[in-house]
Write the structure tokens for this entry.
Amino acid sequence: MPSQPSLCLITPALADARNGNWQTAKRWAKMLSEHFTVRLMKTWDGVPADLMIALHARRSADSIAAWAQALPDRPLIVALTGTDLYRDIITDASAQHSLELAHQLIVLQELGPMALPAHLRHKCEVCFQSTSRRRPQQKTARHLRALAVGHLRDEKSPETFIGAARQLQQYPDLWFDHIGGCLETALCDEAQLLAASNPHYRWLGNLPHHIVRQRISRAHLLVHPSRMEGGAHVVMEAIASGTPVLASRIDGNIGMLGADYAGYFEHGKVAELADLISRCRREPRFLAHLEAQCAARAHLFEPEHERSTLIRITNQQFS
């Protein structure tokens, strides 16, 4: 019986990062292990394989370039996972070079291809990420809990969520939980100041992933105020948990939630977000409408949908 082909999967983040790149890499390694012998690493070690998949055009650029030089005829797939799609390929020469070297490009939501240079879109495929479904939790009617999940750094715009919580702090039936590690001191200081003065805002820091999933399931709303996203894990995890989303109107969110979704606010507009949160509390029908719209997209984030897309894309490289 012939042995499986070998796959080198490059990820700029390993388990200790607790971020989206690591979650993607771990999941893809498991899905593709049915068809490949998978080696998962941060930087390519020069050992040949039949295929490389590299996450992040800039942060994995050295491995991508080394592979293309050493094994130019072996397939190379580059997945654009976040800031590389909406920032690095515009400004960074190494990220731009990664796109040119790749035989195939992957983006994680349906508006992603439009961010690429026109001459490269023909080699791009959309692969929605996936997560396990969670049974929707019974949620209290005594208050509304809004949850934001994301490390405190500029791209995630945590100050928008903090600002909305501050603007709404006179309403005792609106509660705010904020999960994420401290990556930028000024943002963390802002979170700590609000937590000290508002008993209904909690900054919970970095939590294990299974605890984050539990808190997403128990929240009434997942708030995702990012400035840029390739396709956020927490958005699909909320959808798979029956928790509706309020999201900044950026391509990375629209590509997951759909153009007609009713829960968008303009990026950075604290008053708009505060109005939406308040409306969800005042108008149960509006909250139910958001929930129904999320449920209609849930099939896109099923593990079998992601697995079959990955297998089709990788098989194409050997046909």
Notes: The chain has two domains: 6-130+302-316, 144-300. The mean pLDDT is 94.
